[in-house]
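For the sake of transparency, this paper describes our internal protein records without simplification. An entry from our holdings is shown next, in its original layout:
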Amino acid sequence: MGAAQLVSLFLALAAAAARAVSAAGARPSEVAVGALFTYDSVIGRAARVAVELAIDDVNADGTVLAGTKLSLKSHDTNCSAFIGTVEALQLMEENVVAVIGPQSSGIGHVISHVANELHVPLLSFAATDPDLSALEYPYFLRTTTSDYFQMNAIASIVDYYQWKRVTAIFVDDDYGRGGVSTLGDALAAKRATISYKAAIPPNSNSDVINDVLFRANMMESRVMVVHVNPDTGMRIFSTANKLQMMASGYVWIVTDWLAAVLDSSASRDLKDMSHIQGLIVLRQHTPESDAKNKFISKWNTVARNRSVISGLNSYGLYAYDTVWTVAHAIDQFLNSGQQINFSTDPRLHDSSGSTLRLSTLKVFDGGEQMLQQLLLTNFTGVTGLVQFGSDRNLVHPAYDILNVGGSVSRLIGYWSNYSGLSVAAPEILYQKPPNSSAQQLDNVVWPGDSTTIPKGWVFPNNGQPLRVGVPNKASFKELVSSGGPGNVTGYCIDVFNAAIKLLPYPVPLQFITIGDGKKNPIYIGIVRMVANNSLDAAVGDFAIVRNGTALAEYTQPYVEAGLVIVAPVKQVTPSAWAFLKPFTLEMWCVTGALFILVGVVVWLLEHRINEEFRGSPRQQVATIFWFSFSTMFYSHRENTVSALGRFVLIIWLFVVLIITSSYTASLTSILTVQQLDTGITGLDSLISSSLPIGYQNGKFTKRYLTLELNIPESRLVALNTIQDYADALNRGPKNGGVAVIVDEKPYVDIFLSHYCNFRIVGQQFTREGWGFSFQRDSPLAEDMSTAILQLSESGQLQRIHDEWFKRPSCAYDDDSQVGATRLGIGSFSGLFLMCALICLFALVVFFVRICWQYNQYSNSDAEDEPGAADADVVQRRPSRLGSFKGLLQFVDKKEEEIRRKMKRRSSDKAAGSSDALSVSSAY
């Protein structure tokens, strides 16, 4: 090969390489996008025009896909999952980079597997089944709001009006089942539930719909949630109207399919509108904007030119934005240098003789990169912000809440995942901190043209009476008594029947007795039967306790109850010395000694200055005893004149008041009350003792004593009848009986009305009540609570009580008449100590003063020189004035005499000094 040939070959290879590089970097002139929806449907008619307009707008916009044309490959699924699957496979043969659709959730479940294999993203503007968001379908992307949020919006409405049970009417396909399953979860979070699921088979005729609605109408809930397809849903309301299910008392909440139907109806059919009055309807919220209004105007113009019989709905808006989402993603895909290439999957080959042509299906090599670009979408379209969150759902999901009235639907509020129910638009609330507590909706006109919020529940008209369990007890027949199947009587039964009559709806009853009448049944076991749906209610003397409320729903208490202690008592035998029993021997001795002490102290304080406390020794001793004991009756005739004496007397009179009052009260109690036969006087002594305790078999008392008070089970003795109570208490612990019985106060009141030798000791130590038990979240529990309050307010509850409980005269209500005790010194030790200290203080002050006076008196006496005239006085003066005997003689003198003598000596001393001074002057 010559040099020229080599150069030519090199230049040719270089040119080929240059052309290859140029071709690799060039943008394609056209990109195919697929579309799957049902042309002749409420959603499809609006979406078809919207998608075609979006394709034209994208191709006319130079800022997106510059130099690349977006072409549309559209296929009609014809409302069939099978045809939709076939059409999807045919669409994949045309090398589309993305598919707008499918419209149906059922088709979405099927072809999502195809999309996974071929790596072609699906962008559905109408398949709202929440299950399509599963990780099983990575190439499925929803460009509309998921029913997950719509069902949470419905749950918020149900909770707002405080309904607890709803009936779900739904189409029995993937779309209906997925939505209702999500609704159940959303209601459970609001403590509500779906009480009945009315499934309508797809493509059902009017007879099938009639049968489904008839069964739903037999159930208790009057809150109907309708989640069906737009093209067949209107037949539900015409059938419901014939069944009189659109009357007052019903609630109809309809998902967004009905809003699509109403928005798509170019001219309102007055006949159809009359069937949907009072409905609450949800619609996907799209904020108002110039772009939205411009698009609506353009859509209406095109629809008129094409003679489209349907109007634009929210799904058409989402279909329009879906095309723009795909366009933005393709633009970013191509700008990143990616190429649109398809390759053959070796696993897809035609079997021998097969005409399916599976080999024509190609895998989109850039499918993963295209999906990532789609998830990064962020622009503002006609539906508002188009952006996907971490859960692959559109951000800021929101719904309009409409109320159908007349020929229009009225906006009554909004729901958003940001702040719940509100009357302000969600885009306004997005600018504020979230506040889910301020839930609000405008007033609603309900079915039957009623403005009163429906109760949402009636007793089911399904021919099944309310199964009411009643304990068949061995005793306390006044409360509950069974005379045979269905024949039950008693106070509790009368209260229940009276409350049932106050309900605004009839409730057929079937009483079912539990127990053989010989042994009390286990009450918590009956409540478990209610929780397990073996019974609908439990009626009787059921205490509202913690483990019971965990299983069932209780009504308002109709009886106040609580545990009390019953003990045997004995009557005190009259005694001639009963007046000595209020005080113990020590108390009598200390009291007598204190009387004498106070008499002596007052005598000492008053003796020198009070003539009434002087006299012969015999008279003074008599005065001491008379004065001290007469203060007990406040009849002492001696007056006290000294300050210390009066101070001691005031304190002593207070002490006497306390002593006499206590004595009187204790003596009255001893002479009139009964005495306990055991040492148990209350809850503390019950716990600390080791004596056996009786309790009523079947009730919660045993559980409370063992778990709450930690009393050993070996101390507890189960009893059934009133006679068992009396026998066990009369035998006592030493003879195989019990020391006390712990039971609820209503039982104890009945027991004490028959036996007068037992009494309640201590205080009631629990607080509970008796109520009727129903299944969890049963509306009957709330209505019965209201009825019980009406009975109480009207006084009928008390009248029923008085009819059953006419207590004989031996039953006393004064619990203070049990257990009188003698008063000991310990009860008055502080009082006695105070009195003794006051007396001691007065004596100390008195003797200090006496010693000071005696000292002054002795000094003045020593300085006085006696004269001849005073010889007789000197003869009578003691040899030692400072002796103890002299001190006693000084104390015995009157204070007035001492003062007079000391004053005279002072005068004599002054006169002597004056005479001496005169004599000295004379000399």
